[in-house]
């Protein structure tokens, strides 16, 4: 076999190897894209969800008795459930409740937490042990400011995400 023939065979083999390499690279890029998409879907599925949100204005001496007018409230109770989620990681979770007043202020502004690259004030905070099962949560806030009639918004946050929100109107 001549040198030219061997050189031609080597050139053909390199061309085939290069084509196989490019195909393998395309497959790897496709798999990486699929992996990123699946990771994003798992992260969304693992997000906690607050359901059954309620806000009640109460008298301080009798936490079971609700008041008819918000101005008479001495205690605010916020209740909700963290839904069952087998995808979510178990362990301690810090929940933040942000109650905005009819005027747009944050009721009780106790501190702040991070949400969408900014710092938000919260009204109440509680750390729970999440086991993947539905978890009831109740938080209380002692009224130390004047509460006016109107619509209040309760937003619940966990892991830097808004996990539930509901409006309540008080007289």
Multimeric state of these chains? single chain
Approximate strand percentage: 35-45%
The tally of helices reads: 1
How many beta-strand elements? 9
Query: What is the share of helical residues?
Result: 25-40%
Biggest sheet character = 4 strands, antiparallel
Stretches where pLDDT is under 50 for at least 5 consecutive residues are none
Cross-sheet strand order for the largest sheet: 6-3-8-9
Q: Give the CA-based shape.
A: rod-shaped
User: Which structural class should the secondary elements be placed in?
Assistant: alpha+beta
End-to-end separation: 100 Å
**Mean of residue pLDDT values:** 83
The run of helices and strands is HEEEEEEEEE
- Rg on CA atoms, Å: 28 Å
